[in-house]
Amino acid sequence: MKSPIVRCFCLLLFLWSFSACAQFETQNDGSAEIRLNQIGFYPEGPKLAIVANPDATNFRVLSTNGTEVFSGELSEAKEWPHSFEQVKQADFSALNTPGSYVLSVPEVGFSYPFEINEKVHSEPAKASLKAFYFQRASTSLPEEFAGRWARDAGHPDTEVKIHNSAATAERPAGSTIASPGGWYDAGDYGKYIVNSGISMGTLFSLYEDYPKYFDTLDLNIPESRNSILDLLDESLYNLRWMMTMQDEDGGVYHKLTSADFHGAVMPKDATFQRWVVQKGTTATLDFAAVTAQASRIYKEFEDEFPGLSDSLLVMSKKAYNWAKENPEVRYDQDALKEPAINTGAYGDRNFEDEFQWAATELFITTGEESYYRDAEIENSLAPGDKFQVPSWPTVNTLALYSLLRNREKYQNSGLVDIKAVTQQVIKMADELVEYSRNSAYATPMGISERNFSWGSNSVAANQGILLLNAYAVTKDEKYLNGAIDNLDYLLGRNATGYSFLTGFGEKSTRDPHHRPSEADEIDDPVPGLLAGGPNPGQQDKANCDEFYTRTHQHPATSYIDERCSYASNEIAINWNAPFAYLANAIEALK
Ligand code: 9MR
């Protein structure tokens, strides 16, 4: 479907040049060889498009009335090893007049339309947070809040069975607990503590880093009219569910799930028995970290939620103590029988990073130094270097972010070596910026071939968060611009040419592996969801063999916008959360 702006462009361009318009038409609303952020750019900020045609030499930017407002030469061609393409860059950063535009490259075609504007990402940023509302379990989504995507309630989760792997004398196998609410993890209907951990930590950090920005952010959710910020209301919906997942001894169930994945039906029709399964160290420590951070956040809202903050802290300490007594309980899905559990495993063998994150959050919330000593952060800093861009199984860098956020408090504490923590984050950020400077796509994404794995788009988003943390402490624009480069990557400046956020961009993800979007009989997918992105693992090949063609064979092009593609086109809360951080933080800063 053509947008009005594309029609308008075409009409004007028709008058201006018949052949140009014919080309515009045949290019199907945007040359596949021109890749740019399809939403747009800030007036004072970098503006880059990639032209995947080494024969092209120059480019022009046209406004809606067809007039040329900018022209320039393309850069030298460079190869991007992840897509095996020779590409050139079109840099139009100097164009800073707000408006609607299209980029034109002779012999190649026209780009998708884009805007130059203050607040240019405000709508996708907001939608990526609203997406969590659409993931709510155990509740209906009325039209007032969900629009076209209104749906009935499913998964009441009031009678969830204790799996034998989680049985205790007090809660024997087959007995039931109530564990309602929370967010569906992804395109499936499971609710998984480990993945909730990093997702909640990321959203809470977004709030703690940019609290003022949320004063006016209205997500139009059922709680929007209460006195709590919408981001904190939405997060509380999942937090309250997490709180039900702690056993009386402090340990936390790894997940709440059916034994097998349900087919593509709406929540109300997905009626398999639900179970809570084995307690484990990773889940328990992620829970401890999130509840510790939440405790200090909701402390500010004691009047609205009396006792909540204290309860969270009690639960956090209890979880942490359980983990200290059970420091290496690995979630072993293969060992689970009667029933066997076949849904997403989120298994993790290394617990040190979760210990560091939980201990640090408990230290920051309570001020008790023993937690910080437990965390042994300094022992892991460069040159030993045990920190990475965060992902669901690797979370200790989240502890560095929380320390940096509180750096003034710890500067002269004699306990935290805040200088070394800062240097660690800057070192990691410098590596990203350095790679990006020489990269054909001018983005940190791709610094390692391993960036292209299951959920690769969350790697791009988490790299962006790391850069924003470096920006927060240095105020050096190169870090902010690097973060914007990765936002550009996610919204279209990538080797697939897709904007990976549903509902945003002329060529954006339309058929995500997401059960409600598949079963709801509404053409458009639920908006604001980030697709997993290119994944050369193609673990879904047997499912979607007919769709993977020669053009999907490189790491950065291994993406198909098909429902069958759970390995490249699913959505997940731990991918949406860093996108939401990146887009909203950039909006807050701009
Ligand atoms: O994001 C997870 C990825 O890192 C793993 O490689 C993959 C296979 O175990 O699982 C991904 O998570 C999925 C989870 O297991 C089940 N719900 C959907 C998640 C996103 O695809």
Describe the 3D structure.
By secondary structure, the chain is α+β, with helices and mostly antiparallel strands. Helices cover 38% and strands 9% of the residues. It contains 19 helices and 15 strands. It has helices at 4-16, 18-26, 122-134, 143-146, 193-209, 230-243, 281-298, 308-325, 352-366, 369-375, 377-380, 396-405, 407-410, 418-438, 456-474, 477-490, 515-519, 541-544, 573-589; strands spanning 34-35, 40-41, 48-51, 58-63, 68-73, 78-80, 85-91, 99-105, 109-110, 114-116, 160-162, 176-177, 191-192, 255-257, 275-276. Strands 2, 4, 5, 8, 9 and 10 form a six-stranded mixed beta sheet that branches. Strands 12-11-15-14-13 form a five-stranded mixed beta sheet. The chain is globular and about 75 Å long. The model is unreliable at 1-28 (pLDDT under 50). Residues 185-186, 188, 190, 344-346, 454-455, 566, 570, 572 line the site of ligand 9MR.
Helix/strand layout:
Blueprint: H1 4-16, H2 18-26, E1 34-35, E2 40-41, E3 48-51, E4 58-63, E5 68-73, E6 78-80, E7 85-91, E8 99-105, E9 109-110, E10 114-116, H3 122-134, H4 143-146, E11 160-162, E12 176-177, E13 191-192, H5 193-209, H6 230-243, E14 255-257, E15 275-276, H7 281-298, H8 308-325, H9 352-366, H10 369-375, H11 377-380, H12 396-405, H13 407-410, H14 418-438, H15 456-474, H16 477-490, H17 515-519, H18 541-544, H19 573-589
Parallel strand pairs: 2-10, 11-15
Antiparallel strand pairs: 1-3, 3-7, 4-5, 4-8, 6-7, 8-9, 8-10, 11-12, 13-14, 14-15
Helix pairs in contact: 1-2, 3-19, 5-6, 5-7, 5-12, 5-19, 6-7, 7-8, 7-9, 8-9, 9-10, 9-12, 12-14, 14-15, 15-16, 15-19, 16-19
